[in-house]
Each structure stands twice: as structure tokens, then as C-alpha cells.
Amino acid sequence: MVVYWIMKKFSIKTFGCQMNVHDSEKMAGILKASGMAQAEDQSDADIIIFNTCSIRQKAEQKFRSELGRIKSVKKKRPGVKIAVAGCIAQQRGAEIFKRAGHVDYVIGPQNIHLIGDMVKSEGVKKTALEDNPDIAGLELPALRGEKGRAWVSIMYGCNNFCSYCIVPYTRGREKSRASESILREIRGLAKDGFREVTLLGQNVNSFRSDTDFPELLHKINEIEGLKRIRFVTNHPRDLSDRLVEAMERLDKVCEHIHLPLQSGSTRILGLMNRGYAYGDYKEKIDKLRDRMPDISITSDIIAGFPTETDKDHGDTVKALGEIGFDGIFAFKFSPRPGTAASLMEGQLPEDLKAERLHEILRIQDGITLVKNKGLEGSIADVLVEGLSQTDGDRLTGRTRTNKIVNFKKDPGISAGSIIRVRILEAKKHSLKGEVV
Ligand code: SF4
């Protein structure tokens, strides 16, 4: 008798931050290592995974509508298995089975290493939600989605408990990887042709294991073949003088930092439990610019935090002008269940939050455009990422300062290469250039 073995296929839909994107790469790596293949399309998959995010209500709503849509797929093909991973999985746990009977597995972000065994188990609904104190010791394969640049997790979890954030509850307390394990991974990536690594952590600059973060950067900087080092996301309180010095001295560390401010009002920062006043933050920015005048600085802003007055909002607007960020991610405050801020008195109406957000974005767009205009005529090194998503005749890439540059397609230029580009025209969110 001939037995045919049909390779199972998986599909992963990712919501949320870079942490989730890289967790999805790791789940894909684990599933591939256990003999499965990545489906070209969700409709072709035997296992459908949703890697979810609950940082804002919008991301959660998007996931819920996808989960509702997939119900009909399961009706047509009852053999399909559905897994919910990520922060919503950790927060809601087995309750997800009650609300969505078509879900088979619920797996939290600290347990993604179990995904391979989980999807092989037949018939029974399963959860993996335990705290995993050993997460920093795991070395998991990753199926990376990009050429040339790679994400590398160096620490997990967060100890900060900002009052609006669910991460410390879903990803647990901070745990940093051993430096040798990180260096081994990055040496392997450099050998495989990756030119840029982005070190990932919810609070990356508080990394500490057998060495601290500035020292780790020194060691990574020595890796042959590697050209660029980035790291996200930083907490302003943990931006030490030694880190600023390392950024200035190390040639592979890019001239860009993402440093979430969240609000220009010290009173609101206190309610957010951010651990710094606006003046402290501004001092750090001055230090960075003092050592690296051309550094690009991006940030996160929350509009309409509970009790935010016109004066508090005015402080944020003033901060945008004073600091002159290269770009920001700004959002309306979104009360997340289980966080201290969701229970605070003085929640603001949606239309006021929207109005303030609109003003913040309008002002920042003007600042970004002026900054980008200043780059016209200059020449920059660009790491090519691939075809532009909006124009099939153009390639897209990033400068060391993390600016997106689009330029004419050339058969001699492939994703992952670093080329020289002259900046011809500045736009709000990108630059147009020509290959030099
Ligand atoms: S630093 Fe604050 S916002 Fe960032 S993950 Fe930790 S608790 Fe959340």
C-alpha cells in the first residue's frame, strides 16, 4: 500500500508592533522546522494563526472582525485549525473559546515556542498561557520576511507599568537574553547576508544580562559583514550618557532613535507613570543632538489622556515645536481593560480626543516636511527593502536616519543592497531620489 503524506500549510496574520511581527517570524520558523509549509494564501492553509495586539481598541476590533469572517471558512473546511496568539490571547485566555467556538488554540506571547506541538495535537481545545521565566534562554528559528534586514529580540517583557499599557500583564516582567546567544544569532545573520539588525525589546535600552546595553552595542558593532544596528523601543529614563556615547562612537549604530515622549505635560506624564518630567526628556534630546547634530528623532504621542486640559494639550503642541521631531506616531488615548488609566476619572469625549489628535498630526506634518526639505540635494546611503508598495516601477529603502526613500527600479539593484541615492524631492512621509 502506498501512503501519501500531504504537507500541512500554515498562514499567520499579524496585528500590532514589531515584537508581534518578529514573534510571527519565529512561529513560522518553528512550524517550518516541524515539517509544515507557509501557505501562499489564507484560503489554502490548514492552520490559521492570528497574532493579535490589544494596545489600542482599533487593532482589537480589526482582529475580531477577521475572526468572525473566518468562521465561514471553518464551516466549509472543518479540518482547518484556528489559533489565537499574542496579547489578546494572553489577556482573554480560554474565554476566547466561549466567544468564538471555532477557535482551537489560544497561545500567549511567552509560549510561542509551543506552537509546533500545539497544532499537531488533535481534537482538543488547548491553551498555553503560563508565565515563562525561561523565555530569554530560548533560541528559536525564524522565517524572516525581509531581505537585508532582520529583527532580533534581545529582551522580553517590561517592568514599567505605564498606566495606559497592558504589556507588563501580557508579556510579563523584563528578561534579557545572554549576550553570547544574541551575538551568535547576529553573526549567523551577517553570514547569511543580512546587513542590518534591529534589536527588539519593549524597553530595549534597559537590557541587562551578563552585560549592559551600551556594552552589547560595542560587541555587535564588531561583527563582520554587518553594516547597520538599530534598536527599538527606548524608554527616556533608561537613555544613559554611556548609551549616547556608544551611539556617537560606534560606526554601525544608525543616527536615529525612537524615543516615546507620550505627552508634553509633566502632570500628564505623572498620571501616565512614565517616570520623567518633560524637562528631563528635553535634556536627553539636547544631549543626543549635542553629540550627534544630524540624528533623526521620532516619538509616540497620546492625545486626550484622562483629565488632559487645554493647557496640557498646549504643552504637547509646544513640545512638538521645541523638539522638532523627524516624525511621530500619534494616537487617541484608548482605554484598555485591566489598565489603571482605563479606570481613571476624567475620561475625555471621543470628539475632543480626535480634535486634539488632528491638531498634533497637522503641526507635526509641517515640521516633518520642513526637516525633509532640508535633505533635498544631499546624498544618502540607502538599504534597499524591495519594490515600493504604491508604485511597481520604484524601489524603496531607508537611510541610516530611517527616512524612506523611493527611487527608479533598476535590474542591477536588489533588496538587501546598500546604494548611494541623491535626494531630489521631500514629501511628508517619504523622500524621492535617484541612484548616484
Ligand atoms: S515602557 Fe510603558 S508603554 Fe512601553 S511596554 Fe512598558 S509599560 Fe508599556
How would you describe this protein?
The protein is an alpha/beta fold and 436 residues long. It folds into 3 domains: 9-128, Methylthiotransferase, N-terminal domain (Rossmann fold, 3-Layer(aba) Sandwich); 142-350, tm_1862 like domain (pyruvate-formate lyase- activating enzyme, Alpha-Beta Horseshoe); 379-435, Nucleic acid-binding proteins (OB fold (Dihydrolipoamide Acetyltransferase, E2P), Beta Barrel). 34% of the residues lie in helices and 22% in strands. The strands form 5 sheets. A 6-stranded parallel sheet has the order 2-1-3-4-5-6, sandwiched between helices. Strand 1, helix 1 and strand 2 form a beta-alpha-beta unit. The protein is globular. The site of iron/sulfur cluster (SF4) has 10 residues, from helix 6.
Topology summary:
Layout: E1 9-14, H1 18-33, E2 37-38, E3 47-52, H2 57-76, E4 81-85, H3 86-92, H4 95-99, E5 105-107, H5 115-120, E6 126-128, E7 149-153, E8 155-156, H6 167-170, E9 175-176, H7 179-191, E10 196-200, H8 213-221, E11 228-232, H9 241-249, E12 256-258, H10 266-271, H11 278-291, E13 296-303, H12 310-323, E14 327-332, H13 350-373, E15 379-387, E16 394-398, E17 404-408, E18 418-426, E19 431-435
Parallel strand pairs: 1-2, 1-3, 3-4, 4-5, 5-6, 7-10, 10-11, 12-13, 13-14, 17-19
Antiparallel strand pairs: 8-9, 15-16, 15-18, 16-17, 18-19
Bound molecules: iron/sulfur cluster.
Please state the oligomeric state of the protein chains shown.
single chain
For the secondary structure, the number of strands is 19
Give me the Rg, rounded: 22 Å
Top CATH class of the largest domain: Alpha Beta
Could you say which overall geometry the principal axes of the C-alpha atoms support?
globular
Helix content: 25-40%
Name given to the CATH architecture of the largest domain: Alpha-Beta Horseshoe
| Mean pLDDT across all amino acids | 95
CATH homologous superfamily heading of the largest domain: tm_1862 like domain
Residue runs with pLDDT of under 50 for 5 or more positions:
none
- Beta fraction of the residues? 15-25%
The CATH topology assignment of the largest domain is pyruvate-formate lyase- activating enzyme
| Largest sheet data | 6 strands, parallel
